[in-house]
From TrEMBL:
Secretion signal span: none
Organism of this sequence: Ictidomys tridecemlineatus (Thirteen-lined ground squirrel)
PROSITE patterns tied to this protein: ASX_HYDROXYL, EGF_3, EGF_CA, G_PROTEIN_RECEP_F2_2, G_PROTEIN_RECEP_F2_4, GAIN_B
Subcellular location as annotated: Cell membrane; Secreted, Extracellular space, Extracellular matrix
Primary localisation category: membrane
CDD domains: EGF_CA
Protein name as annotated: Adhesion G protein-coupled receptor E5
Pfam hit, one: 7tm_2
Length: 768
């Protein structure tokens, strides 16, 4: 018997019976599984896609069919031969299914592909990167024009070489171009030539342009390199390390002998760059770039500045810097590196330096100013740790970095107070010395002339020091005023030591050659005392005018040996004076041992020699300590020099004036001479002043006794006027004056009477 189950059903035989089931892919409308005849057949298609949405694996779509289903792959995918439910990516680039322009490179992506410019090429205007319509052209090599207003043959040659590299640039030769570019930079920096003669702000402007140009050029050239790492080290120890590859999801570490950098790929790529291209991470270490960045100012982070002021209990006036490491320029595919989402970690190798007082090893970067110059800055960078030859830093931005030794200039109010008060006292004492040497004629001699000019030089030098030693900006370039102050100080202090050496010559003629002439005339003394230092300063300024630029003060620079234009003559003068004084003391010893020595002259010479030696000792020792004044900071030596320098004027006043017996006698006379009309005083004629003298109102006999003693001391009884009258008393007769003295109530001392009698005789019988 033949049984019919109907459409879309199959008959299943069993022992003694049968049953009907729907064909695979179908089911009864009731949901049952078996039925017995065609009239019960309600088989209908099963929607497998709806029953099991995940029946097809990823990258495919389930499509229901009568009695079955099929998995249709998404565009860019194809069925896996081993598993029809699985779709795999189609590599359009390798299979030739892409439609990229020949100027681009096909990059396969998951389910698609991208068209990118070849290395060393760039999009033409109007084209969009990543599509079939992408069209590229060769990227022109970055060109550097010579900065306007800069005249330098060395820079001109460098920019000519760079422009030639631009003309001959081909992406396939990017490696050679990089090496030639670094070679040209090394040649410029190894022997800067006239670049070092450029004014400091312009030189820093040139350095800023070179650093920016290197970053842009190397970024462009790196994109033309094959994927992978690249390292180059020039003969001048300039080292380039870079990585050009597809970015990952983790971190990237790039290192070389001078520096290491650690950052994440997202920071290196940047938000505006396609994640399907390659990303460049590079670092260039240049040990010679620091030559163009010397004497640059340092701007500290406000928090750091406040910390220093609290630590040193004084305001921060500035800081001098010493570059310890090569200048390291970092460049990425990401151009927006002024504010990074995550900080970048650096490890720099540098010279071993032990920080002293007011010194610190810091991490700094080169920041461009608004005028396209630059300065060192620490904002956004902080030091994680430092060892002998290595320092680790973190920064939230990228630029050109270096490890610096900062010498902080903290304002010392105690030292400033000592300097101002002490130098003011010294100026007063020096002025008193000058007036004494000019007005007190009994002490005037060739040696007094030397003392006068010595005090004048010290007075001018101290006044200039007090008024202008400070720079306008302690960490900036010295202006014309500061250079002028440095030149004046150089001249005044050299002149002071020259006059001190002339005192040694005067003593030599006085003691050693006492019977061979009068020694040097005033004209020759002035010619030597002022001419020799003028010649030294003129030669120094003509050969190296930049030497009059101190690091912190308006003083001489220690660079290139310029400081020896002061230290050399100073040491020579001290040495020569010491030799002269040894000879002088030796000859004095010989003369004292003679049978009939002229004791009066010898004692005078001995006093003068001892005075000169003491003067040399004080002035010489002062400037021995003064050599350390302009160090970054030597507190003890600085205080010693300041105190000694401030006491120079007082010392000279005591030694040359107060301890001089002639000055003391004249001073007592000025004190005793009171003012009363009637009689001319010998003091007025002694000073060369016109007018009538005055007779004292108190201590008549003491005052007149002193007057007579002064007259006798100066031999003023000699009749040298046309009228034959004595010079001691010009108005009234001597007899009347002497009679007035004798008729005073106070008795005269025997000495005064003897002097008076002697003067009367001298008046009656004048000398011929």
């Amino acid at each position: 018997m033949k049984v019919s189950c109907g459409k879309l059903a199959d008959c299943q035989n069993v022992e003694g019976s049968y049953y009907c089931t729907c064909s695979p892919g179908y089911e009864l409308r009731s949901g049952g599984t078996n039925f017995t005849n065609a009239s019960e057949n309600t088989c209908q298609d099963v929607d497998e896609c709806k029953q099991n949405p995940r029946i097809c694996k990823g990258r495919s779509t389930c499509i229901n069919t009568q009695g079955s289903y099929r998995c249709q792959c998404l565009p860019g995918f194809e069925p896996n031969p081993e598993d029809p439910k699985l779709c795999t990516d189609v590599d359009e680039c390798s299979s030739g299914q892409h439609q990229c322009h020949q100027s681009t490179i096909c990059t396969n992506t998951l389910g698609s592909y991208q068209c990118h410019c070849r290395p060393g090429w760039e999009l033409i205007p109007g084209s969009v990167n990543g599509r079939n319509s992408t069209i590229c052209k060769v990227t022109p090599f970055f060109t550097w024009p010579l900065p306007p207003g800069v005249h330098s043959q060395s820079l001109s040659r460098f920019f000519d070489k760079v422009n030639n590299l631009h003309k001959d640039f081909k992406p396939v030769a990017a490696t050679n171009t990089i090496q030639n570019l670094i070679g040209a930079m090394d040649e410029l920096l190894k022997a800067p030539g006239d670049v070092e003669d450029i004014a400091l702000p312009v030189r820093h402007q040139v350095a800023t342009q070179l650093l920016l140009g290197l970053e842009q050029s190397l970024r462009t050239l790196a994109e033309s390199l094959p994927e992978g790492p690249f390292t180059y080290r020039s003969p001048s120890d300039t080292e380039l390390s870079l990585m050009n590859q597809k970015p990952g999801n983790g971190n990237v570490t790039l290192g070389q002998s001078h520096a290491r950098i650690h950052l994440d790929w997202a920071t290196a790529t940047g938000a505006g760059n396609s994640s399907t291209g390659t990303t460049v991470v590079g670092i260039l270490s240049n040990p010679n770039m620091g030559k163009l960045l010397v004497n640059a100012s340092l701007v500290l982070d406000p928090e750091k500045e406040e910390e220093l002021q609290k630590a040193h209990e004084g305001p921060l006036r500035g800081a001098r810097i010493q570059i310890l490491s090569p200048v390291n320029s970092v460049f990425l595919t990401n151009n927006d590196t002024e504010k990074l989402a995550s900080p970048v970690t650096f490890a720099f190798s540098h010279e071993g330096e032990i920080p002293g007082k007011r010194k610190e090893v810091i991490c700094a970067f080169w920041k461009m100013d608004s005028n396209k110059s630059g300065h060192w800055d620490t904002t956004g960078c902080w030091k994680l740790g430092s060892r002998d030859n290595s320092t680790t830093c973190q920064c939230n931005h990228l630029s050109s970095f270096a490890i610096l030794m900062a010498h902080y200039d903290i304002q010392d109010w105690k030292l400033e107070l000592i300097t101002k008060v002490g130098l003011s006292l010294s100026l007063v004492c020096l002025l008193l010395c000058i007036l004494t040497f000019l007005l007190v004629r009994p002490i005037q001699s060739s040696r007094t002339t030397v003392h006068l000019h010595l005090c004048v030089c010290l007075f001018l030098g101290s006044a200039v020091f007090l008024a202008g030693i400070e720079k306008e900006t302690p960490d900036g370039e010295a202006g014309p005023r500061c250079r002028l102050v440095a030149g004046l100080l150089h001249y005044c202090f050299l002149a002071a030591f020259c006059w001190m050496s002339l005192e040694g010559l005067v003593l030599y003629f006085l003691v050693v050659r006492v019977f061979q002439g009068q020694g040097l005339s005033t004209r020759w003394l002035c010619l030597i005392g002022y001419g020799v230092p003028l010649l030294i300063v003129a030669i120094s300024a003509a050969t190296a005018s930049e030497g009059y630029v101190g690091e912190t003060y308006c003083w001489l620079s220690k660079k290139h040996g310029f400081f020896w234009s002061f230290v050399g003559p100073l040491a020579l003068i001290i040495l020569c004076n010491a030799v002269i004084f040894v000879i002088t003391v030796w000859r004095l010893t010989q003369k004292f041992s003679e049978i009939n020595p002229d004791l009066k002259k010898l004692r005078k010479a001995r006093v003068l020699t001892v005075t000169a030696i003491a003067q040399l000792f004080v002035l010489g020792c002062t400037w021995v300590f003064g050599l350390f004044l302009f160090e970054p900071y030597s507190s003890v030596l600085t205080y010693i020099f300041t105190i000694l320098n401030c006491l120079q004027g007082l010392f000279l006043y005591v030694l040359l004036c107060l301890l001089n017996k002639k000055v003391g006698c004249q001073g007592r006379l000025w004190e005793e001479l009171c003012l009363s009309p009637g009689v001319a005083s010998p003091l007025t004629w002694h000073l060369g002043l016109a007018g009538e003298g005055r007779v004292p109102q108190v201590g008549l006999h003491g005052c007149w006794e002193q007057v007579l003693r002064v007259c006798l001391f100066h031999n003023w009884h000699q009749p040298q006027s046309d009228s034959g009258k004595g010079l001691c008393l010009r108005q009234g007769t001597w007899e009347g004056t002497w009679s007035g003295v004798k008729s005073s109530q106070a008795p005269l001392s025997p000495g005064a009477q003897a002097i008076g009698v002697w003067y009367v005789k001298a008046r009656i019988t004048p000398s011929q």
